[in-house]
Amino acid sequence: MSLGQTHNGAALVRVHGLVKHFPVEDSDEVWRAVDGVSFDISRGETLGLVGESGCGKSTAGRCILRLIEPTKGDIKFAGRDVTAMNKSELRQLRREMQIIFQDPQASLNPRMKVGAIIAEPLVIHKIGTKEQRRERVAWLLGKVGLDADFMKRYSHEFSGGQLQRIGVARALALNPKLIVADEPVSALDVSVQAQVGNLLQDLQKEFGLTYLFIAHGLAVVEHISTRVAVMYLGRIVEIADAKELYVRPLHPYTQALMSAIPVPDPKEKRERIILKGDVPTSRNPPSGCRFRTRCPMAIDECARIDPELREISPGHSVACIRVEGYASAPVSEARP
């Protein structure tokens, strides 16, 4: 089984060797935000992309949409080369790829009424008459659980959860195939997080959507994801089916993230793995394994070997020389 390929069907998105480096002002150095990432997303599935702040997960998502220009790497969407597209081709691609932003308040124009915000993609792509757009907006608001009369109001009149539903409605306006959900629930209350997560799952089933769901922690993506990729300092360190990952996390970083998930039963105790030190800077990452400076399992070899993703079991790949069976496992990706 190739990296990221699942039984759900052919890959809609193929990312290979994605790199995004940002230049450091008044220096020859760069910030290695994304440093050789490869994965596939099959049609109709949800790939959860998880990691700490600054690991490069949002940058990777925006590179796929070409909201940020990648430094190098291959991005294919439905067989088309996204990195080779000109402005006109990208404009057409926008109808098939949309994004839900982390902060719903900041992503909505406060001077526009909600109806105009949701209808804006239809206006830009010259779809429908004014009346047809109004009907489409009312229908979309209903689909995300809001009243059609809300289209007459401004964004400051809504709660955070309602604003994020409006953002979802806007993302759905053009009938996209792929939605990059960039931490769509992290700014919301816990109870509202569950509501928005359930809404996204319902919409996925109804419209056959494909999601790249970006989040800080594994608890958020547990129920919504088909597969989960764990990212650390610009690299994917583990990727597996969601059920497999939560039952058998292999990378020590994934195990630490898993130990931080609250247990609903107060009588049940979970041993918390506390990582030492701070996340190193992506301007000057450690030699060898990037996680070794915080890893409780690190040995001397970890400073010399930069581990590649290897498939330890079908569909479960990890980048850690300390994992049993790693030395004899096949390589999952070719990193540039």
What secondary-structure arrangement, pairings included, does this model have?
Elements: E1 11-23, E2 30-42, E3 46-50, H1 57-64, E4 72-77, E5 80-81, H2 87-93, E6 97-100, H3 104-107, H4 114-124, H5 130-143, H6 160-172, E7 178-182, H7 190-207, E8 210-215, H8 218-221, E9 227-232, E10 235-241, H9 242-247, H10 252-259, E11 310-313, E12 316-318
Helix pairs in contact: 4-5, 4-6, 5-6, 6-7
Q: What percent of the residues sit in helical stretches (DSSP H or I)?
A: 25-40%
Note the total helix count: 10
Give the DSSP E fraction (strand runs of 2 or more residues).
15-25%
Structural class: alpha/beta
The average pLDDT is 90
Give the SSE string.
Answer: EEEHEEHEHHHHEHEHEEHHEE
Global morphology: globular
- Strand order in the sheet with the most strands: 6-7-8-3-9-10-12-11
Distance between the termini: 21 Å
Work out the radius of gyration.
21 Å
The counted number of beta strands is 12
**Biggest sheet descriptor:** 8 strands, mixed
Query: Unreliable segments (pLDDT under 50, ≥5 consecutive)?
Result: 1-8
